[in-house]
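Recall from the previous chapter that SMILES is a line notation for molecules. Here it describes zinc ion.
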Amino acid sequence: MLNELEVLAKTARTELEQLDSGAALDHWNSKYIGRKGELTQMLRRVSELPKEERPVFGQRANELKRELETAYTAKEAAVKAAELEQSMAESGLDVTLPGRPASPGRLHPSTQTLRRIYRIWAEMGFQVYRSRDVETDEMNFQLLNFPPHHPAREMQDTFYTTNPDVLLRTHTSPGQIRVMRDYCPEPIRVILPGMCYRHEQITARSEIQFHQVEGLAVGRGIRMSDLKGTLINFTSRLYGQGRPVRFRASHFPFTEPSAEMDVQCFLCNGQGCRMCKYTGWLEILGCGMVHPNVLRNGGYDPNIFSGFAFGMGPERITILGHGIEDIRLFWGNDLRFLEQF
Ligand SMILES: [Zn+2]
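With both inputs in hand, we obtain:
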């Protein structure tokens, strides 16, 4: 039986050397040295031997079992290493490398300002109305009282597509026509945020793309005093209660009368500084009563309905709020700038 034992151990060892997978190793383990393995079974048969042969057999059997167990552990490590190496060579992915830390992102400074503006207007009962970036010449200009060759078109150098009637909107105002046509004859209180595009030289002060937030209120009996009261309410929510404002007469083709609104410079409190160009005032938005032609183009009868509109630039508001000196930083994708917000 001792001889049988030696043969068995030798066979087991030879088999073990030829194994090359974890599954085969598992099989080998239960075949020989597991609880029901052949070697384990043989150890139990020690009682069949004459008494004097038992110690020698038992000792040798235990010795062989330990040897096989050690060989098994070594072989298992080698097979695992080989399997890892092979999977790395096949997939090019080293699963044992530590992962790269995920750096949490944050909102773009313009998005932060936009959301602040949305919140304020939402509190005042204005909904967000989204309008398209690609517009027709008719929507972007004609229906807003810019006839072809109108000199005001010169102020808005336009990106045209290969179709001369299709362009990238130069302002969010075409959304006024779209929202009026959607809701007519219901009263309207919306803001129209979005990206606008102008074919301009890119400098520290001008970009080819920028956000605008347009606002529109249409209903019965809306007057210039409603426009002023609403916008003063907005600026006091944005810049704090009691911040002085002023309205200056201006001109836009789609409003009549038209005005620009300034707030007192919040850096120097009206004393005059570099940011306000020593005037004490910061221009923050344009506004006016919706022109009768525009109301009519939206489907509203200007003899019954009236309304006001306004437009502001979130980037300008961000620039003023943080003293940013170069508008190109907004779309330059420089993390050193963006991470400061
Ligand atoms: Zn100032």
